[in-house]
Amino acid sequence: MLDLAAGGGVDPSVATALTEAITQEAADRGFFQVLASKEVQTMIGFERQKQMAGCSAEAECLTELGGALGARFVMGGSVTKLGDAFQLSIQMLDSKRAQPVGRSTRLANDIKSLRQMVPFVVAEATGTPLPPPPSRVLPYSLVGGGALVLIAGGLVGVNAISQEDAVNRELARGTQPGTVIEPLSSYERESRTIALKKTLSLVIGAAGVGLVAAGVYLNPPEGGSRPGGVSVRVVPSGSGVAFVGVFP
Predict the structure, then answer these.
(1) What is d(CA 16, CA 3) in angstroms, rounded to the nearest whole number?
(2) Residues 222, 227, 230, 233: is their CA dihedral positive or negative?
(3) C-alpha span between 118 and 227 (Å, rounded)
(4) Percentage of the chain surpassing pLDDT 90?
(5) Does 37 share its domain with 92?
(6) For residues 117-149, b (16+ Cβ closer than 10 Å) or e, as one string?
(7) By CB neighbour count within 10 A (0-12 exposed, 13-18 middle, 19+ buried), where does 75 fall?
(8) pTM, full prediction
(9) Which residue has the higher pLDDT, 41 or 195?
């Protein structure tokens, strides 16, 4: 695994962190014995690196590097900032055949989102099985539970409004001659009960909104679980604007 190239205003420390994440992910998948960039530099030596720096093409460089290490597969890539988006691109080359095994490109709004896509990027570039999609049981449960709580709060509120309306109608009838109504203390108790129900309705509704919001926040992004999705942004270019991103 070679160091990712940092381009387009990306801090080198970001490229280093993503390189380490990709190296760890490739090793954890268990399909390859992975050599990190620092190990590669130690094995081939400074002079050999200088000799290979003059190769004419990226594929030729990777092939020569693989041959020097005795490694069949060499993986490298870049992380670039395009406007306010970040793009991660990696490829794996079969050094014996001088042919690419796979390539992967991802576009994200921030580095954190890009980091979450690393398992899918590694799977695509190495031609290995995709990781299982993230579980959505918890976020869906929170959204469903929040919706039920909202309904319950709404029912309590409707009941309070209906009860208040009934009391108002009864008091209106009490103004007519000959009509018998309950003592004033009875209506005061009902008024307090209605106010309590209204407050309870608001509290239950707020709890429901909180549960729904938590479910939406915890729901994994579709871009991570569906690597073939479309991710496109408009960024400024030298002659105007350009569309950049990942297409199926």
Answers:
(1) 7
(2) positive
(3) 11
(4) 19
(5) yes
(6) bbbbbbbbbbebeebeeeeeeebeebbebbeeb
(7) buried
(8) 0.52
(9) 195
Domain-terminating residue out of 84, 102, 133: 133
Boundary of a domain, candidates 96, 116, 133: 133
| Largest CA-CA distance found in the chain, in angstroms, rounded | 111
| CATH number, domain with residue 69 | 3.40.50.10070
The SS3 assignment for 108 reads strand
Identify the DSSP state of 219.
S
pLDDT of residue 34: 87
Distance CA 150, CA 165 (A): 22
Cα separation, 1 vs 5, whole angstroms:
12
DSSP string, 42-89: HHHHHHHHHHHTT-SSHHHHHHHHHHHHT-SEEEEEEEEEETTEEEEE
Cα separation, 16 vs 36, whole angstroms: 11
Distance between CA 143 and CA 151 in Å, rounded?
12
Task: Tell me which H or E stretch contains 139.
Answer: helix 137-173
Give the CA radius of gyration of the chain.
31
Q: Report the alpha-carbon distance of residue 176 to residue 3 in Å, rounded.
A: 89
